[in-house]
Each structure stands twice: as structure tokens, then as C-alpha cells.
Amino acid sequence: VTIVDLRVKFGLPPLELDEDRCIVVVRWSEESIGLLADRIQDIVVADAADILDPPANICGVTGAFFSGIYPMEQGLVAFMRLPELL
């Protein structure tokens, strides 16, 4: 499985690999890819009608990674564009 460090994609220092790291495995173009994340807080099920366009202040290279946001009581959930991350 190929692993993509999301911190590097967002212009941050890479994560050190240890047993506490989270890898989310996704399927893309019939290939399994691991997305290395700092942490996974929760799994959210969202109705597509409730997903909003990302705000205008998310721009530049980093903004290209986001396709939408989902407002929740605890804050915002960001939806990422998988093709741009890979």
C-alpha cells in the first residue's frame, strides 16, 4: 500500500512513524492508498445536501485539496479532494 503523508501535502513537516499514527486506507482507481494522518477524531455520516462549498478564505495550493465543509456542533468537517492529494 502506498502511503501519502497529508502533512507534507499541506506544506507541514512530515510525521514520525510510530504505532500511534493513523493510516486511512482508501480505494482510488482500483488501488489501495494509505493517507497518514495526525489523528482520527470521529467518523461522520453526512447527507450530500448538507455539504457546503469551502469558504473563500481557503485558497492557494492548500485550498485546492478541499471540496466542501460540513458544519457540526463541534466545528467544521472538511472534505478533501482525493485526486489532488495523490
TrEMBL record:
InterPro entries: CheW-like_dom_sf, CheW-lke_dom. GO terms for biological process: chemotaxis; signal transduction. SUPFAM superfamilies: CheW-like. Residues 1-86 form the CheW-like domain. This is CheW-like domain-containing protein.
